[in-house]
Amino acid sequence: MATENVKLGVCNVTFDAVDLGLTKGGVEVEVTTETHKVMVDQFGNVPVNEYIVAREVKIRVPMAETTLENLIKIMPGATLVTDGTTPTKKKVNVEHGTGINLLSLAKQLILHPAALTALDKSQDFTVPLAMTAGALTYSYKLDEERIYNVEFAAYPNSTTDIMFIVGDPSAVA
């Protein structure tokens, strides 16, 4: 047994080479795999084989830095408008989004343990193609921070089939 293999700690989240800032509540990764069990009459209800038919990856990021700039990064169809007269006046316009192709907007998402140096990518969780549909939930409460709960989905790269990488992505065979 090696207790040094038990990891703790928070991560920094980078999307399209932009740090999304502080989080609150912990970033979560969920990988689900759907299978099809092969059944034949001669073996009754005992599977004789099993095939993977789908794999999904979801990354939930509770963003604590609720800036307008972060909002446009995680909301497809959103645009930042800066007032022509008073540059400190800004707003985000969000379109209905119908028909937006999320794969065409997908970018690299990296979860990097905060305890490691920037050069140590040994524990990174990298999704080469990730995007969020832009669903948000947040609350205005007296005694809590306003958090953008954002869910990213991973898409397979059509040439490499890779959906995610754990460890240093620059490692080669």
Class from secondary-structure proportions: mainly beta
Count of strand segments: 10
Coarse morphology: globular
Query: Strand portion, in percent?
Result: 35-45%
Computed Rg = 20 Å
The low-pLDDT segments are none
Q: Give the termini distance in whole angstroms.
A: 28 Å
Tally of alpha and pi helices = 2
Whole-number mean pLDDT:
94
Q: Which series of helices and strands comes N to C?
A: EEEEHEEHEEEE
* Biggest sheet record: 8 strands, antiparallel
Residues in helices, as a percent range? under 10%
Describe the structure.
This protein has 173 residues and is mainly beta. The protein is built from two helices and ten strands; from the N terminus they run ββββαββαββββ. It has helices at 68-73, 102-105, and strands at 11-15, 18-19, 28-38, 49-63, 78-82, 90-94, 107-113, 125-132, 148-154, 165-166. The strands form two sheets. Strands 1, 2, 3, 4, 7, 8, 9 and 10 form an eight-stranded antiparallel β-sheet that branches. The longest helix has 6 residues, at 68-73.
What's this entry about, in short?
The chain is mostly beta strands. The chain contains two helices and ten strands. The protein is 6% helix and 39% strand.
